[in-house]
Write a structure and sequence with these properties.
The chain has about 190 residues and is mainly α. The chain folds into two domains: about 45 residues, Orthogonal Bundle (Arc Repressor Mutant, subunit A), CATH 1.10.10.60; about 140 residues, Tetracycline Repressor, domain 2 (Orthogonal Bundle). Helix 1 runs antiparallel to helix 2, helix 4 crosses helix 6 and helix 5 crosses helix 8. The radius of gyration is 19 Å and the shape is elongated. The chain starts with 5 loop residues before the first helix and ends with a helix. The mean pLDDT is about 90.
Amino acid sequence: MARVNTKQLITEAAVRVAARHGISGASMDQIAEAAGVAKGSLYYNFASKDALFEEVIRSGFERLAGAIDAAREGADPSDAPRAVAGATLETLRGNLDLAKLMASEVFRTDRPWADAMEIARSSVVVRFRDVLREARAARSSTPISNGDSLAELTETAGAAFFGALAGAALDWLLFRPDQPVDRVLDQVLAAFEG
């Protein structure tokens, strides 16, 4: 018989409960009930509700970073933005509740986990920035060096790409779920590739 990962059950339940009630409205009792564990198990694995949601948000960004890295690995640099965008959309589609939660929290600075969130968000933004830089360099056959237009693509460009993908993913999954993923990709990439 397979061993149940209690910590994973709890984090998945926390995502479901927070998707319905928001993080502020989610109680540890509701999360324990949704996970099918005793409240003591919840506190054994997480010292507090804040610690639980810090883990949820951090692991969500880690999952997204892993998908980005995997998509970049074999992709031609000029095609990497599409590969990474597709992997991002599929990752968000794979857990809509987590995608909604991450989107609602990404710019919150009043949470106890804001510092951890910023580190996790930045690691994803830098990956998107690097993909955009490498694609531009591949298209222009110019190496990236400080002081040129390629190096001027900063984390802001990565954040814009990430924001466009996250917004498009939520619009697609919530309001246009019948739209093919390739159509969503075409629309987002048209805005970035001109």
